[in-house]
What we know:
Elements: H1 2-10, H2 18-52, H3 66-81, E1 86-96, E2 99-107, E3 113-121, E4 124-130
Antiparallel strand pairs: 1-2, 2-3, 3-4
Amino acid sequence: MRQAFIMAALGLGLTGGTAVLAQGHGDLHRAVDAAILSDISKDRQAERDAKRQPYASPGQGSIATAGAARDACGAKAREQAGFGAKIIGTPGASSMAAGWEVEGVVGQANGPAVPFVCSVRNGSVTGILLRSGE
């Protein structure tokens, strides 16, 4: 079964590829085994990385300070509020066990001000809530 798979993958067919397979069977077998082990290794590394930073958000980098948490949450709030939105005042960051909770206000130039709450855990923004009903 494995030989048929290898020959089909190489496009050799069952008759014309037998001589080629006989010559390089050991090398081909080792190459396939190495490819499988490489895939397994990559999968395991990806699992380890996901456990280290389960909430990684691309583009934000590692958020290690309250100031960085305020900046990252402010950027997310402006993004959600829409084009032309600005942070009103300075958002406040409260320390938590695994990060920060950031509260602030975002608004449009000629629109209402909207409070927001943002959560930063394990070095990245994990959630943001615009409180438009208040």
